[in-house]
Amino acid sequence: MTNIPQRGQQAPLFSTIDQDGNQVSLSDFLDQWVVLYFYPKDDTPGCTVEAKDFTELSIDFSQLGAKILGVSPDSQKTHCKFINKHNLTITLLSDPEHQVAEAYGAWRLKKFMGKEYMGVERSTFLIAPNQTIAHTWAKVQAKNHAMAVLTQLRELTKV
Q1: Alpha-carbon distance 4 to 11, whole Å?
Q2: What is the C-alpha separation between 136 and 37, in angstroms, rounded?
């Protein structure tokens, strides 16, 4: 099991497809802040709250030079349905083999109703323009999380 990258470490490189079938790589965002957040499943209650909150604040993130990327094991098709249903404006990345989640330590052993299984642990990584980890959130609670990330980004971008 991969460890979670910590502040100051180089962000693990990745390349996967977004909801429109475009190849998206971390290297596409050199000299830009990236909010990389992992969530378990499209159109579930917590994941919907989180995606809608990031969408609501997306202009604020953009004004600070940040790109929001949500990552789940869901397919491109499922991402499109999720985006259309909830009018999301953020980019969703498809990670069906959970390679990106594993690289960031978000693919973990989980427990639910006495059963153990591997799945995505809700977590977020704020990646600096030099592609190092600026801040990490593990075991995220969806409600108000986007605002916490924005607050941290505002703090880090103060000159």
Answers
A1: 10
A2: 10
Q: Is 80 a catalytic residue?
A: no
Residue 114, C-beta contacts closer than 8 angstroms, at least 6 positions apart:
none
Catalytic residue among 34, 35, 36, 47: 47
Summarised one tens digit per residue, pLDDT across range 78-125 is 999 999 999 999 999 999 999 999 999 999 988 888 889 899 999 999
d(CA 84, CA 88): 7
Instruction: Give the mean pLDDT of 28-49.
Output: 95
Q: Rounded to an integer, what distance in angstroms lies between the CA atom of residue 64 and that of residue 43? A: 28
In the 8-state DSSP scheme, what is residue 30?
T
Query: Is a pLDDT exceeding 70 seen at residue 136?
Result: yes
